[in-house]
């Protein structure tokens, strides 16, 4: 039989569903790019004001709210919380032109919430709305971080530098996810999202007339071969049991259609799970690029290799707690299964400092056209899962703060 707290969460979550969907649609209609989330931040602040939840704005965008529990043991005599849980929602959108045809489609041309951050804001606001009405069940404090600039990979570091993790005992986040079936939520322990790195290679050849290729060294040909050969890192340098991706997203070269290009450059991203593969990648990329270019009479240099952030690794205990929260508030049938993804998430930085969990809230529903991948201009979600995500967050918070209560 469900506990009193769980029954309260279920009732409040069901009542809050229209509000949560309304919030999602508002933020979807008004997306903003990383570090430009000014109106988004103002809108979140208005909602928190209406709930009576105080907050701080340490950065130009984003904010940190504090929901204080009123259970008798919620605070120590010195005023510090007995336990403090950080919950996080990212708030930025992508430079994508929306083509969903939704009536609440983006009104900001060329910008779209194509990764579900609008849903994250709405679910976290919904969770706070639920929890703000049951403070007497909170044996500690909830710190709600509305984080800017996740898509650029730097927002979590900014929030941490602003003190988001100070005095925090655990962390929770949820990501709406198009590869998990709607109505189910996955929170398995271990690696869930990948180490994320960026790189740039510069290629130098010798330009010449396009009709006299023998007089030069074609930088574009060398760059193209490098693109192909980089794929052998995954197929030949790493174990078949080692997940990894090397993607070249840009290749630029040449100045005119009748000139053999003297220079070119390419940029890309690397995704790995293990520490060994992560550390090996720069040298592997450089080796292949340098020798491939040399074989074609050109030169290549790895001019930039940036570690954006590490892998998201769910703490075993936090994952077990999250699974139990799913069962409590949504039922055993809501427990999802997902192998994880080589997509990246800067929530990893919080998990490097405190134990925690990132849950994948499934939204795949072919009947609604919710099948497109994250970052697609056609990306849709099944909005019926949003209240469930809010209820899970609330249940996790209640359970986390209640642990070790005498």
UniProtKB/TrEMBL annotation:
<dbReference type="InterPro" id="IPR011650">
    <property type="entry name" value="Peptidase_M20_dimer"/>
</dbReference>
<dbReference type="Pfam" id="PF07687">
    <property type="entry name" value="M20_dimer"/>
</dbReference>
<feature type="domain" description="Peptidase M20 dimerisation">
    <location>
        <begin position="197"/>
        <end position="289"/>
    </location>
</feature>
<dbReference type="GO" id="GO:0050118">
    <property type="term" value="F:N-acetyldiaminopimelate deacetylase activity"/>
</dbReference>
<keyword id="KW-0479">Metal-binding</keyword>
<dbReference type="InterPro" id="IPR017439">
    <property type="entry name" value="Amidohydrolase"/>
</dbReference>
<dbReference type="Pfam" id="PF01546">
    <property type="entry name" value="Peptidase_M20"/>
</dbReference>
<feature type="binding site">
    <location>
        <position position="117"/>
    </location>
    <ligand>
        <name>Mn(2+)</name>
    </ligand>
</feature>
<feature type="binding site">
    <location>
        <position position="151"/>
    </location>
    <ligand>
        <name>Mn(2+)</name>
    </ligand>
</feature>
<feature type="binding site">
    <location>
        <position position="175"/>
    </location>
    <ligand>
        <name>Mn(2+)</name>
    </ligand>
</feature>
<dbReference type="GO" id="GO:0046872">
    <property type="term" value="F:metal ion binding"/>
</dbReference>
<dbReference type="InterPro" id="IPR002933">
    <property type="entry name" value="Peptidase_M20"/>
</dbReference>
<protein>
    <submittedName>
        <fullName>Amidohydrolase</fullName>
    </submittedName>
</protein>
<keyword id="KW-0378">Hydrolase</keyword>
<feature type="binding site">
    <location>
        <position position="115"/>
    </location>
    <ligand>
        <name>Mn(2+)</name>
    </ligand>
</feature>
<dbReference type="InterPro" id="IPR036264">
    <property type="entry name" value="Bact_exopeptidase_dim_dom"/>
</dbReference>
<keyword id="KW-0464">Manganese</keyword>
<dbReference type="GO" id="GO:0019877">
    <property type="term" value="P:diaminopimelate biosynthetic process"/>
</dbReference>
<feature type="binding site">
    <location>
        <position position="375"/>
    </location>
    <ligand>
        <name>Mn(2+)</name>
    </ligand>
</feature>
């Amino acid at each position: 039989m469900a506990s009193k707290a769980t029954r309260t969460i279920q009732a409040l979550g069901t009542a809050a569903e229209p509000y949560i969907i309304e919030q999602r649609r508002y933020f979807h209609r008004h997306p903003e790019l990383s570090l430009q989330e000014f109106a988004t931040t103002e809108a979140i602040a208005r909602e928190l004001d209406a709930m009576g939840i105080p907050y701080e704005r340490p950065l130009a965008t984003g904010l940190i709210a504090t929901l204080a529990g009123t259970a008798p043991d919620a605070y120590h005599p010195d005023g510090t919380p007995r336990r403090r849980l950080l919950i996080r929602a990212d708030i930025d959108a992508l430079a994508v032109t929306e083509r969903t045809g939704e009536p609440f489609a983006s009104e900001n041309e060329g910008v779209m919430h194509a990764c579900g951050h609008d849903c994250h804001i709405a679910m976290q606001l919904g969770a706070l709305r639920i929890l703000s009405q049951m403070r007497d069940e909170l044996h500690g404090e909830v710190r709600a971080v509305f984080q800017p600039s996740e898509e650029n990979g730097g927002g979590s570091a900014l929030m941490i530098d602003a003190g988001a993790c100070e005095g925090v005992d655990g962390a929770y986040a949820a990501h709406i996810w198009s590869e998990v079936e709607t109505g189910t939520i996955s929170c398995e322990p271990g690696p869930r999202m990948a180490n994320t790195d960026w790189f740039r290679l510069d290629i130098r050849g010798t330009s010449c007339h396009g009709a006299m290729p023998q007089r030069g060294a074609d930088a574009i040909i060398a760059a193209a071969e490098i693109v192909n050969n980089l794929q052998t890192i995954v197929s030949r340098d790493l174990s078949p049991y080692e997940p990894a991706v090397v993607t070249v997203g840009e290749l630029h070269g040449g100045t005119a259609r009748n000139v053999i290009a003297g220079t070119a450059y390419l940029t890309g991203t690397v995704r790995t799970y293990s520490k060994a593969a992560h550390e090996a990648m720069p040298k592997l990329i450089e080796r292949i690029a340098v020798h491939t270019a040399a074989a074609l009479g050109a030169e290549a240099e790895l001019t930039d290799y940036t570690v954006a952030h590490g892998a998201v690794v769910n703490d075993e205990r936090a994952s077990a707690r999250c699974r139990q929260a799913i069962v409590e508030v949504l039922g055993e049938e809501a427990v999802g299964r997902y192998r994880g993804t080589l997509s990246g998430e800067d929530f990893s930085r919080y998990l490097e400092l405190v134990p925690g969990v990132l849950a994948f809230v499934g939204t795949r529903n072919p009947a609604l056209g919710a099948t497109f991948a994250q970052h697609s201009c056609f990306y849709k979600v099944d909005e019926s899962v949003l209240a469930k995500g809010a209820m899970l967050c609330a249940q996790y918070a209640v359970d986390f703060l209640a642990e070790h209560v005498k």
